[in-house]
Automatic annotation (TrEMBL):
Organism listed in the record: Ramlibacter aquaticus
InterPro entries tied to this protein: Prot-tyrosine_phosphatase-like, Tyr/Ser_Pase_IphP-type, Tyr_Pase_AS, Tyr_Pase_dom
Sequence ranges assigned to domain Tyrosine specific protein phosphatases in this UniProt record: 103-157
The protein's name: Tyrosine-protein phosphatase
Family: Belongs to the protein-tyrosine phosphatase family.
Domain of life: Bacteria
């Protein structure tokens, strides 16, 4: 499915058709695209954007309940502050800052992903989850869902990297960042999400324990997730 005004909108793989979708933000949908998404029966939107992001581009999809799971973005402001101070950022430095962002998902925002799974466990009504570009906060959330469903890591990574084929970098149009910075911020790289997995390993000893202790997914909850969402 192609949604021209939300190019990163797509079904989550290995998930029962019609239940769970991931996307970039839904604040710029045109009428045709909104009708196309409505046709999927979407009833619930789980929004990882921060306060200013939500205000700047409020969800225009009618007839849905939007739940805010706010994770405030920091990366663009951090990089702009460095540039304003006269620092000439290299691509490698930007990648390192992105890795810090992903470690922060584990170390500072796990409570939001715990809330996210609480919504998913409450019902399997057709749901879309998103942030602004649908690549970082959303990409980590999608990976957690697939890992909780025991999807192999290579397929988790394939879904994560699919963003590079789908996303148009319009979300950075007004930031006036140097090309070497924008090149990193408009794509995903394995090194980004691998940094989050390394933080999980360092802090929890592995993904199963992270899912259990940080996100509240005991064996019964993971079995419920498989019942609600796993395709086949």
């Amino acid at each position: 499915m192609l949604i021209p005004s939300a190019t990163n909108f797509r079904r989550l793989p290995h998930v029962r058709p019609g239940t769970l979708f991931r996307s970039d933000h839904l604040g710029a949908l045109d009428a045709d695209d909104a009708r196309q998404i409505q046709g999927l029966g979407i009833r619930r939107v789980l929004d990882f954007r921060g306060a200013e992001e939500r205000t700047a581009a409020a969800c225009v999809l009618p007839g849905v309940q939007v739940h805010s799971l706010a994770i405030e973005p920091t990366i663009v402001q951090v990089l702009k502050d460095l540039l304003d101070a006269g620092h000439e950022l290299t691509e490698a430095e930007v990648v390192a800052h992105m890795q810090d962002t992903y470690r922060g998902f584990v170390r500072r925002s796990s409570h939001r992903f715990r809330e996210f799974f609480g919504h998913l466990l409450a019902s399997s009504e057709p749901t879309v989850f998103h942030c602004t570009a649908g690549k970082d906060r959303t990409g980590f959330a999608a990976a957690l869902v697939l890992l909780a469903l025991d999807v192999p890591m290579d397929e988790v990574m394939a879904d994560y990297l699919l963003t590079n084929e789908r996303l148009k970098p319009a979300f950075l149009e007004n930031t006036r960042l140097p090309p070497q910075v924008a090149r990193v911020l408009t794509r995903v790289q394995p090194e980004f999400i691998e940094a989050s997995f390394e933080a999980v390993q360092q802090d929890f000893g592995g993904m199963d324990r992270y899912l259990r202790e940080a996100l509240g997914l005991e064996a019964a909850q993971r079995a419920r997730l498989r019942e609600l969402y796993l395709d086949g």
